[in-house]
Each structure stands twice: as structure tokens, then as C-alpha cells.
Design brief:
With 519 residues, the protein is mainly alpha-helical. The protein contains 29 helices and no strands. This is Neurochondrin-like protein. It comes from Linnemannia schmuckeri. InterPro entries: ARM-type_fold (IPR016024), Neurochondrin (IPR008709).
């Protein structure tokens, strides 16, 4: 057959197919049309052909075909329900390859139907194809905001949770869509905050509640994977956006915050992979930035009120902290206490570990041995974990000062006098390690003002140490040795236009150290 004859045949088949699919024809005709369309799409998927199919498609019928059951398939159709559903999904897949069709209302209106078909036990490749479509949707600003629909995203979260065991390409696509949705919110919020807040008003409370529930369950095997998803996703949300949602959804926020604290307590109380522990601190730090100090140190009822509430619950002797959470049905106040105590103590421990790692790099005992994943993780710990640990320490200092100056707050606070003393001792040990690192750094080959001025670890460590020295005098004598080098660094910043922006950060620190040197 010549190319001309083949082209005429394809054109004739296309016209016949369009006639069969147009609205108003019988379902039997449309069944035949779908089958013929599937065959034609194997030959050509050019934009012109796809647009003609799209313009003539009876989309409500296509909706029904994506969900059809065997009992609804006419005997004369010649195919079973599974085949028809697959053909319908294949057609949507073909449409999705052309962005001009992907952004049209008729396509967007099919999204809930497609997402309703996601299934971890899908024996066909329909779920895989649907998630590829969602990935394409997430890539186009003209249409991607529909993924913030909490119902749509709940279907994706459910699929993710159901496929942790098998994982694979479809699972990774679902996780990608989940994380991209938070990025979509970030980008949209930059351009039009009010509109995005209105469009996504139910997104955060619904999705954080949905994803935090399995995270809080003691028997959840994939808690570290959920933690990683949360950490990478929450990082995209602007602080103002999250604060507004928390304000508008106080009840839902309390619920998912409780769930997150419960899950974090379980992870931090047990041995975990280093990357999981890092993710714990990253999530705690990110939420501290977005929710404020109340995330770690919330106001709680009086001690009498707590006791009155817990007396009504049956108690047994907990074997471990984690076991106690499940068997005693801890109140919100009890979870707050355990969470705050654990976070402060482990943040202090983590600060000391990080200082040891930085000291090893100074001496050259670790830098040359790290490679590949280990080197990447070390870089993440310095650039991401350390700043967040410092933020946790700073808010802990603020809480300690607040409680020490307010007897009433001490009586109804998270810690009694003995616990507060332990917190202070943990902080002293942490800042002693920070001080030792800084003393080692300024006497090393990297301790010149020219190098220190661009050393983020030095700048951040000097700042947090100065905050502690303002409130605690136990390290004053040793810290005075840092003053001359800091003075040189500030002098250098003032003399170089490229570093003048740092003067605003360093001058208050220098003033604090100058006061120490005069004492």
C-alpha cells in the first residue's frame, strides 16, 4: 500500500472514529469508537489529531469508562471492563502529552476520577499511568494549583502510604507529586499571597492531619520515610503562609502537632539511622521557624489541672518512654512535657556531636576519609542540621530565662526546678563544646580573619555562644580569648565593601564579648 493510500485510510478511520465518539451517539457506538481511537493512537499522536479527538470527545462518557464495572459492559462490545478502563486511561495519557490540552477544563475535570482509581493492588499499569499524568500536571503553572485540592492530595497520600513496602517507580512518582505540591504553593504565594491562601485554605490542615496520623502510630514501620517526606515538603512552605493557616485552623493544628510530637518522641527515643535523626532535627527546626517557640514550649494547664485529668486514666508502669505513650494514652500536656525535655536534651547532645565532627575536620582526621554518601551527609549536617540545632538552643535559652524570672510560670511550666537544672547543665555542656571548637578554629590554618569572615559555621557559632554568655557566666573566663580574633574579623568587614553587610550581625556580638573582656 502506498503512503498516499495509507494516509487516506487513516484519515477515513479518524473521521469514522470521531463520528462514533461524538456526544449523542449510543454507548455501544462509543465503545467501538474508543477501541478504534486506541488503535489510531498507536499510529499518530500529533497535536492536530489529538486536538480533534479532544474537541469531539464525550468526556462524561470517558469518565464512566474509566470507572466501568464488568456488569455494565455490553456483550457486543467485544472487550472486558479492565480493557475499557485501560483504554480510557491511555487516552487521557495521550492528551496529557500536549500541554495545550492538559490545561483545558475538560481535562482538569477528569483528575478526581483518575485519582479515585489509584490502587496499590492494581494489576494493570493504570495507577502508574495516572501518576505520570499527575507529574505532568505538576510541571505546568497554568494547571498545577489544582493539586492543592485536599481531596486530590489525600488520594495521593493514601497511595504513598499503601506502597511504602513495594516502592518502585509509581511510589516515587507519587512522592514527587506530593512534594511538588508544596513547591507549587511556595511559588504561587510569592506571586499572589491572598489568592493562594484562599485557594488552599483547607490544604494544610487536611494533609498534615492525613500524613501525621500514620506517623504517630507506634507500629508504623515506615515512620522514617514519612518523616523524610514531611521534612522535604514543609521546607517549601513560607513562614507567613503556615502561620496564617495555623491561626485559621487552631483545632486541626493542635491535632496534627500532637501527632507529629508523638511520632518524633518515638523516633528520638529509639536507635535510628543517622539520616533519620538528622531529619528529626530538621523537621523540629523547620516547624520552630514557622510555628514559633510554642511548637517546643507551649503554654500548658496548671500542674493541679494536669493531675486531675490524668487521675481519671488507668495507669501501669511503663517499661519505656515509647511504650508509655501507647499504654497510658498521654494527654496533650504530658506529650508536650516529654517532647520539650527530649528535644532540648538531644539538641544539646547533637550540638556536641556536630562540634566534634567540625573539630575532626580541622585536624584533618575525618575530611580525607569521607567520600560519596558519607561526604554528602556530612555537608548536609553542617549546612542544614547545625543551623536548626542552634535555633533550638536559642529558643531553649529564651525559655530558661523566661521561667527563671517568673515564679508563676515555673509552677505551671514544662519543667520543675530539678528538670530546669538538668536543662541548664545540658546547655552548659553544649556551649562548652561550641567554645572549644571556636578556640581550636581560630588557632588553626583556617583561623585567619580572611577565612573566618566567610566561614558560616564560625559566624553562627559565635552568635549563638554570645547569646548564651549573655545569660550564663560559667564560660566567661575562657570565652575572652575569642575577643581579639573577633575584633579583627569585624575590622576586616568594615574595610571591605563586599563584607560590610556582616557588620550588622557581628557588631552586637563584638559588643557582648567586649563587655566580657572588661569584667
Amino acid at each position: 500500500m502506498s503512503d498516499s493510500t495509507s494516509s487516506n485510510s487513516n484519515s477515513s478511520d479518524l473521521e469514522r472514529c470521531l463520528e462514533l465518539l461524538r456526544p449523542g451517539t449510543s454507548d455501544e457506538s462509543k465503545f467501538i469508537g474508543l477501541t478504534l481511537m486506541s488503535d489510531l493512537l498507536q499510529i499518530s499522536q500529533d497535536q492536530g489529531t489529538m486536538t480533534r479527538f479532544f474537541d469531539n470527545m464525550d468526556f462524561p462518557f470517558l469518565d464512566r469508562m474509566m470507572q466501568i464495572e464488568e456488569s455494565s459492559v455490553p456483550k457486543e462490545a467485544g472487550v472486558n471492563a479492565t480493557t475499557i478502563r485501560s483504554i480510557a486511561i491511555d487516552i487521557m495519557t495521550c492528551f496529557s502529552t500536549h500541554w495545550e490540552l492538559l490545561v483545558r477544563k475538560e481535562f482538569k475535570d477528569r483528575v478526581p476520577t483518575m485519582l479515585s482509581l489509584l490502587s496499590a493492588s492494581d494489576a494493570t499499569e493504570n495507577s502508574k499511568k495516572i501518576l505520570k499524568i499527575m507529574v505532568r500536571i505538576s510541571a505546568y503553572p497554568q494547571v498545577s494549583m489544582i493539586l492543592t485540592n485536599p481531596g486530590y492530595q489525600s488520594s495521593i497520600v493514601a497511595y504513598i502510604c499503601d506502597t511504602f513496602g513495594s516502592k518502585g517507580e509509581s511510589h516515587e512518582d507519587a512522592v514527587m507529586v506530593f512534594k511538588r505540591t508544596f513547591l507549587i504553593i511556595q511559588e504561587g504565594f510569592k506571586q499572589n499571597p491572598k489568592v493562594v491562601l484562599q485557594i488552599t485554605k483547607d490544604f494544610l490542615p487536611t494533609i498534615m492531619t492525613r500524613i501525621s496520623k500514620p506517623f504517630s502510630v507506634l507500629s508504623e514501620t515506615y515512620k522514617p520515610e514519612i518523616l523524610q517526606m514531611l521534612t522535604e515538603s514543609v521546607a517549601y512552605l513560607p513562614e507567613q503562609y503556615m502561620q496564617q493557616h495555623v491561626k485559621d485552623h487552631a483545632v486541626e493544628t493542635r491535632n496534627w502537632v500532637r501527632n507529629l510530637k508523638s511520632g518524633l518522641i518515638q523516633l528520638l527515643s529509639t536507635r535510628q539511622a543517622p539520616t533519620t535523626r538528622d531529619d528529626c532535627f530538621k523537621l523540629i527546626g523547620l516547624l520552630l521557624q514557622r510555628l514559633g517557640a510554642d511548637w517546643i514550649f507551649p503554654e500548658i494547664p496548671t500542674t493541679d489541672a494536669i493531675l486531675a485529668e490524668t487521675r481519671t486514666k488507668k495507669k501501669s508502669s511503663p517499661a519505656t518512654l515509647v511504650h508509655s505513650m501507647e499504654s497510658l494514652s498521654l494527654t496533650d500536656a504530658e506529650i508536650d512535657k516529654k517532647f520539650a525535655a527530649l528535644v532540648v536534651h538531644l539538641a544539646c547532645v547533637e550540638a556536641r556531636v556536630l562540634m566534634d565532627e567540625l573539630a575532626d575536620e580541622l585536624s584533618g582526621s575525618a575530611a580525607t576519609t569521607k567520600a560519596g554518601d558519607e561526604a554528602r551527609q556530612a555537608k548536609i549536617r553542617k549546612e542544614q542540621v547545625l543551623p536548626l540545632v542552634y535555633e533550638i538552643l536559642e529558643v531553649s535559652i529564651g525559655y530558661l530565662v523566661l521561667v527563671s524570672e517568673n515564679d508563676e510560670l515555673l509552677e505551671r511550666g514544662l519543667f520543675d526546678a530539678t528538670a530546669l537544672l538538668k536543662v541548664q547543665e545540658s546547655l552548659q555542656a553544649a556551649f562548652s563544646a561550641v567554645l572549644d571548637y571556636l578556640l581550636d578554629l581560630q588557632t588553626s590554618k583556617d583561623g585567619t580573619p580572611e577565612k573566618l569572615v566567610s566561614n558560616m559555621n564560625y559566624l553562627a557559632s559565635m552568635r549563638i555562644l554570645s547569646v548564651w554568655l549573655t545569660e550564663d557566666g560559667s564560660l566567661h573566663a575562657q570565652a575572652v580569648a575569642l575577643f581579639p580574633t573577633l575584633e579583627e574579623v569585624v575590622r576586616l568587614c568594615k574595610s571591605k565593601s563586599s563584607h560590610k553587610s556582616l557588620v550588622r550581625l557581628l557588631q552586637p556580638i563584638l559588643d557582648r564579648f567586649q563587655e566580657l573582656s572588661l569584667d
